Amino acid sequence: MLGKVLVVLSILLAAMSPVVTVAKEQSPEETGCVRSIPQPIINKSVFPNSKFVLKNIDYGAVIVPLGLETVEFNNGDKLVITNSGCEYFMLSFEFETSQGKGDVADAKYWFARSVELMRQTEKGINKSIDLSQGIKALEDYSKGNTNPLIDQDVDYGGQDIRSFFKLEEVKKLANNKFMVRVSFSVGPL
Predict the structure, then answer these.
(1) Which DSSP string do the residues of the chain spell out, in sequence order?
(2) What is the pLDDT of residues 56-95, one digit of tens each?
């Protein structure tokens, strides 16, 4: 009996999970999303070791296009940029870096490190994507708060359309590396 229950639960969970496929470019009308299809944002002349893959996440009622861009830095660090959103424009920067130390719970330290990582990356972002306001807001928040909070939306602009960032997560990895994920979002569009 327990075996049958587990099989039924597995089938139900599989049916509820989104389906991820390699994407062909589709119009907003085809996907059901307001925003356009994600495009590469890395300037290959600055970061030549980058790769872009476009995927679709099918939630049934809507297909969300997802761009994944991976950058391998000369120092061995790695960056994965997730370009996603349907009603929102979201860029998530996940760094795997050896440029860190200390306690992952030290939010003040990791906000400052996030600013440095984003400043180093900003030079290689296509000029059509302007992250300067978001990075400045991240820096101001980092300097102006004695106890900044990880995994909390912080608004920095937009009267009608909200702009916000979030230091989503910091965790210790093997080989004295850290994963630092910071995101910038605009919306709803």
Answers:
(1) -HHHHHHHHHHHHHHHSPEEEEPPP--HHHHT-SS------B-TTT--SEEEEEEEEE-SS-EEEEEEEEEE-TTS-EEEEEEE-SSSEEEEEEEEESS--S-TT-HHHHHHHHHHHHHHHHTTB-TTS--HHHHHHHHHHHHH-SS--TT--EEEE-SSSEEEEEEEEEEE-STT-EEEEEEEEEE--
(2) 888 777 777 889 999 999 889 999 999 988 888 899 999 9
